[in-house]
Specification:
Structural class: alpha/beta
Radius of gyration: 28 Å
Distance between the termini: 92 Å
Helix content: 10-25%
Order of helices and strands: HHEEEEEHEEEEHEHEHHEHEEEHEEE
Shape: globular
Length: 352
């Protein structure tokens, strides 16, 4: 039998569902959404963040002199029970809490494949703020320290896996070799194309030369006492327009490289000291707990201005990424990183 059905001249109101949503389903949907929203916070886990912030005790398992002229000493750290330490990648650093309570940051310069040991290196700075002196004078084999980390503010991207570069070029100035060593080691293991320039005052001031020598002519070593102050061309010896450049060293070296690196190249760097203040303005901070007012000069950080009045203030990297010196401040929901944050001239009230 062949039945002819009428052709509708309008879209049926229930073709895509009911015109009005069922009240019961609407209530259930809201309850479910609220429940799922709460689960985001109840079960949220950030493995990297937890690892980064956790304090753990380590013991100094080995100590060695790495450079005599610059008094560089390496410390190998391990868990007291010999258990695994958190994994890390080339470029990472840890916060080290010394017996006095001082907290300083040191790059990891060992092998990321060694899950049971961290290695750091510390250059003795007699005119510094005391952290390096304490590490050299008071920390030996068997000493116990508190560390936090690892963190990574100098991440290494492997060509073809996060980087479009076809070649790697490393530049290290003195103790700046510490974050570069694991990068070189990884590049070598992966069979990547790379080169390096290692510079310093003299050969006796350069740490880890025995490890550097293993890489042969891939590494160019030049020293100020023999070759003079290096230019950008010297520091970039072996690099190409397709290179990714990774550098760690003093501010003058980074500044020279910044002017000389090919504009189309990747340039990643880590410096020893705080970034220079450019076009800063003088302003005033008030220490809320005492009412004291401190003038911050145009060319100084809040940290430097406040330290004479609050010598116990906590700080570490002085470059704005570790967060140690973050202080609650009126009108600033995220507080103030007093090593780098500034005011355009207005007075800032700090919870100090």
């Amino acid at each position: 039998m062949n039945l002819a059905l009428p052709i509708p001249d309008a879209v049926p109101p229930d073709l895509y569902g009911r015109r009005g949503r069922d009240p019961l389903l609407r209530v259930l949907e809201r309850l479910m959404n609220a429940h799922m929203h709460s689960l985001r916070f109840l079960h949220r886990s950030d493995v990297v963040g937890e690892r980064r912030d956790r304090r753990r005790q380590v013991v100094v398992a080995h100590r060695a002199v790495e450079a005599h002229d610059d008094n560089v000493v390496s410390f190998t750290l391990a868990s007291p029970d010999g258990s695994e330490l958190p994994a890390w990648r080339a470029g990472a650093h840890i916060d080290v809490e010394m017996p006095s309570g001082r907290v300083r940051q040191y790059s990891l310069c060992g092998d990321p494949a060694d899950g049971k040991r961290y290695r750091i290196a510390v250059r003795r700075i007699p005119g510094g703020d005391g952290g390096s002196m304490e590490m050299h004078d008071d920390v030996g084999v068997g000493s116990r320290l508190i560390i936090r980390g690892p963190r990574n503010a100098f991440a290494f991207a492997v060509p073809g896996h996060g980087s479009t570069a076809e070649h790697l070029h490393f530049v290290a100035g003195g103790i700046g070799i510490t974050p570069i060593l694991p990068m070189m080691r990884l590049a070598h293991r992966l069979g990547l194309d790379w080169s390096m320039v290692y510079t310093g005052r003299s050969r006796n001031s350069l740490p880890f030369l025995d490890e550097i020598d293993d890489y042969g002519d891939r590494v160019t070593i030049r020293t100020d006492d023999v070759d003079g102050i290096p230019s950008a061309d010297i520091l970039l010896t072996g690099s190409r327009t397709t290179s990714a450049v990774y550098a760690c060293g003093p501010m003058p070296m980074i500044a020279v490289l910044n002017r000389g690196v090919n504009p189309g190249s990747e340039f990643h760097f880590e410096r020893f000291s705080a970034p220079p203040i450019v076009n800063g303005a003088e302003f005033e901070v008030e220490l809320a707990r005492t009412g004291q007012r401190v003038t911050v000069p145009a060319d100084k950080s809040v940290l430097d201005a406040v330290k004479p009045f609050r010598p116990d203030i906590a700080y570490s990297c002085r470059q704005g990424f570790c967060g140690t010196c973050r202080v609650p401040a009126v009108g600033r929901p995220e507080g103030m990183l007093i090593c780098t944050d500034r005011s355009a001239g207005e007075r800032v009230v700090l919870d100090l």
